[in-house]
Specification:
eight-stranded parallel sheet; alpha/beta; TIM Barrel; 355 residues
Length: 355
């Protein structure tokens, strides 16, 4: 039974709504994106396609997104109140600082983290932060991760996809995983546009962004991390992926079968024998949010496949701000205990919240 104090906070729903993949970016960084996207030497077609458009377009959608990203005050809070969102877990938007050279990325990460920390201090009951890092310089990234967690009070690390075309299964990035495990801090693997070596077919069809390319690239990235043996080396490390698991739960049977079959065939000498099937890591080392997927069949499937204790709510603000989608999630016909886990208690546990 929900006590009176909890009922007052939840308007009788029985749960708080905690949104776990919500984006921001300082206005100065957005202008830097636009400048970089227009430079003749920029050789990242995904970045140019995404930020060359959004940072300059007068369209209503682009302007809403740009304004929403830059605002950590009254406008964001008003949008949260209108949607009934009690708390946001906020991270620097993709590609974060991972598109820059190492010194620039490190400096911009520190600046962005300080701005977000100020907003969290101003609204501790409404905001929680994730620490942005520049993996281009792993040692500096670890240092900033430690500052973000220990000094700024952030509760997760954001990795915005590949770093300048490199995926983080490369062992040179593993110090970040070692540090996250030691800090007992999850890593949110957020999408980025596919890198230049694979994006062209997506661009040709207008499918490079959130419509499809983001999910393909992030699912690939997560699989590369699993198959490289990262979780065998760091068994307590926890990742979070969004958008109903970037399709991985729906592929899980085939992933287990074909990974095992490929190993038996000795087709790729570099492939590693893992301690467990791929499904084990998805159920023990990875949390899923539904960000942008307000659809009961997908949410319920993820809960059944990896467990209701590993699926969390997210809105994907400001990229997908649809008030009716909150109602759709509220009205899901799933067990009430699973709904409370989805909206509230899983996030409280994963991000160590005391709301």
């Amino acid at each position: 039974m929900v006590n009176k104090e909890a009922a007052d906070r939840t308007n009788g729903r029985g749960y708080l709504r905690i949104a776990t993949e919500e984006a921001f970016a300082p206005a100065s960084l957005l202008q830097t994106y636009l400048k970089l996207a227009n430079e003749p030497g920029c050789d990242d077609p995904g970045f140019k396609s995404l930020w060359g458009f959004y940072a300059a377009s007068p369209s209503a959608r682009a302007q809403f997104i740009m304004n929403g990203l830059a605002d950590l005050g009254a406008q964001r809070l008003a949008h949260m109140d209108a949607a009934g969102i009690d708390h946001q877990i906020i991270a620097l938007t993709s590609p974060g600082v991972q598109v820059f050279d190492a010194p620039t990325g490190t400096s911009l990460a520190i600046e962005a983290n300080d701005i977000l920390a100020d907003a969290v201090r101003a609204h501790p009951d409404r905001y929680t932060g994730m620490v942005a890092v520049a993996p281009q310089d792993p040692a500096s990234a670890v240092k900033e991760m430690e500052r973000g967690v220990r000094k700024l009070g952030f509760k997760a690390v954001i990795l915005n996809g590949h770093t300048r075309g490199e995926y983080h299964d490369d062992p040179k990035f593993w110090p970040l995983f070692e540090a996250a495990e030691a800090l007992d801090t999850p890593i949110y693997l957020h999408p980025n546009a596919p890198p230049k070596q694979m994006i062209e077919p997506f661009l040709e069809a207008g499918l490079d962004g959130a419509v499809y390319g983001f999910g393909v690239d992030t699912g690939l990235h997560m699989l590369r991390i699993i198959c490289a043996g990262v979780f065998d080396r760091f068994p307590k490390l926890q990742f979070i992926i969004g958008h109903a698991g970037e399709a991985l739960p729906f592929w899980l049977y085939r992933l287990d079968y074909m990974h095992a079959a490929t190993l038996k065939s000795n087709r790729y000498p570099f492939m590693k024998q893992l301690a467990h099937p791929i499904s084990h890591y998805l159920r023990n080392n990875i949390y899923i949010t539904n960000s942008g997927v307000a659809w009961q069949p997908a949410i319920e499937f993820c809960q059944k496949i990896i467990g209701p204790e590993r699926v969390m709510y997210a809105m994907d603000y400001p990229y997908q701000y649809v008030l009716d989608e909150v109602r759709l999630c509220d009205e899901m016909t799933i067990p009430s205990e699973h709904k409370k886990q989805f909206f509230q208690t899983n996030a409280e546990r994963v991000f160590k919240l005391a709301l």
